[in-house]
C-alpha cells in the first residue's frame, strides 16, 4: 500500500529533509504534499487525501498544536494521524501534545528509521519492530 503524506514546516530545508528521510526509510510514499504552516496544511487537507501529517510545532500564522486542535474539531480530519516533528524535547510538552491529539513525536535532528517506525506503528507500513 502506498501512502499520501503531508509535511508541514516553515523551513523548506526541513521539509526537504523529511522527504529525503521518508525515501531513505524505504517507505512506499506515493505523494508528498507540503505546507509552510498550519493554515496552509488545513487547506491541503481539505482538498487532498492524506494518510498522515508530519508537522513542526513552531511556525508562523498557525503552529503544530493549533493544527492538531483544528483537525480534532473537524469530522473529516479527526482520524488523520498527526506526528509532531520538533526540536522541543520537554516531556511535559510532548505529553500535552499527545493528550491534545498528536499520535507520535519525532525529535529533531531525526533519522530515517524514526519515520519507518512511526509509520509502521500508526499505519502498519514497513517491516521490523516498531515501538511507541
Could you please describe the fold and organization of this structure?
- The protein has one domain: Response regulator (Rossmann fold, 3-Layer(aba) Sandwich), CATH 3.40.50.2300.
- Mean pLDDT is 90; it is low at 127-132.
- It is built from five helices and five strands.
- Strand 1, helix 1 and strand 2 form a beta-alpha-beta unit.
- Strands 2-1-3-4-5 form a five-stranded parallel beta sheet, sandwiched between helices.
- By secondary structure, the chain is of the alpha/beta class.
- Helix 1 crosses helix 5 and helix 2 packs parallel to helix 3 (64-72).
- It is globular and about 30 Å long.
- InterPro entries: Bact_response_regulator, CheY-like_superfamily, Sig_transdc_resp-reg_receiver.
- The modification 4-aspartylphosphate is found at residue 56.
- Keywords: Phosphoprotein.
- This is Response regulator.
- Residues 4-123 form the Response regulatory domain.
Question: Topology, pairings included?
Answer:
Blueprint: E1 3-8, H1 12-24, E2 29-35, H2 38-47, E3 52-55, H3 64-72, E4 82-86, H4 91-100, E5 104-107, H5 112-123
Parallel strand pairs: 1-2, 1-3, 3-4, 4-5
